[in-house]
Amino acid sequence: MERVIFTDLDGTLLDFQDYSYSTVHPVLPKLEALGIPVVFCSSKTRVEQEFYRQALNNQNPFITENGSAIFIPNGYFSFIIDQSANSEYPVDQQENYSVIRLGETYSYVRSKIQTAREQVSIDLWGYGDLSLKEIKEITGLDSGFAQRASSRDYSETLLKGNKIGQPFKDFKALLAESGLSCVSGGKFHTVMGAKSDKGKAVKLLTALYQREFGTVETIGLGDSANDIPLLAVVDRGYLVQKPGGKWSETTEPNITKIDKVGPEGWIDVAKSIISV
Residue 100 half-sphere exposure, CB side, CA atoms within 13 Å? Predict the structure, then answer.
């Protein structure tokens, strides 16, 4: 039976504070050597994830912007990824990828954010509203990371503004009327298409792995509320702690809570998989 790991990045595979992958780096080649692909499933953009894929020599498919799209390297599966492989979501060719798109376009998301904040009279700013200097100051990212985070395809992250109280609730209600959702990713809220969903994306990609290999066991790791849909659809879901030693709230009965923070918890799960 083949095994596939779906993992969040920020606060899970990567350190919550400095986005370092040094803790998990030594174990990733061991998983690949066992034929266990590690699939990134994150709020991060395509170009952000490509940076980490290159750094970690990861050549597997990946899921971007909170389940807005699945990027599958051409030739990864023995069959062609086209509309016949999936009847609900469009499939596009982008550079060296087949892309299954679950979410809305960035231009659509931006336009609906602008309309909603004008109607509610709320001050909220995303990547598209801020200078590179402001983005660096808010996120703590250097220029390269900030530029990659700003290169968005399907969602907008709200980096600045008041995200509490009734005005923000009204803002989210207006977005919902336009087919958008607004979810917390730990540090920031992200606005995306209502069909963008880590769980749906994982199920779609799992079906392709099953088509390729037959029986597949799926393992999922995350740390935040936006990871719960991912953890709920895999065979084994693991929730690592946030800094401070607490877990995100969940009512899902089949999610195992790991008693370590972020990458340290990730390592414990990976070692248990390797030892099986």
Answer: 29
Polymer length of the chain: 276
Contacts of 22 (CB under 8 A, 6+ apart): 15
d(CA 231, CA 238) in angstroms, rounded, equals 7
Distance CA 268, CA 261 (A): 10
pLDDT per residue as tens digits for the range 97-144? 999 999 999 999 999 999 999 999 999 999 999 999 999 999 988 999
Buried b or exposed e, range 179-195, using 16+ CB within 10 angstroms: ebbbbebbebbbbbbeb
Examine the pLDDT at 18 and tell me if it is beyond 90: no
User: What is the CA 170 to chain-centroid distance, rounded?
Assistant: 26
Q: What is the mean pLDDT of residues 225-231?
A: 92
Q: Which residues participate in catalysis according to the annotation?
A: 8
Ordered structural domains, the chain, with CATH: 2-58+196-274 (3.40.50.1000), 106-193 (3.30.980.20)
Which structure tokens are listed for 102? 């679950």
Q: Extract the tokens encoding 107.
A: 């231009």
Residue 160, helix vs strand vs coil: strand
Which among 272, 274, 258 is positioned nearest to 12, based on CA atoms?
258
Give the pLDDT confidence of 159-215 residue by residue, as tens digits.
999 888 999 999 999 999 999 999 876 678 889 999 999 999 999 999 999 999 999
| pLDDT over 90 percentage in the chain | 82
What is the average per-residue pLDDT within 64-79? 96
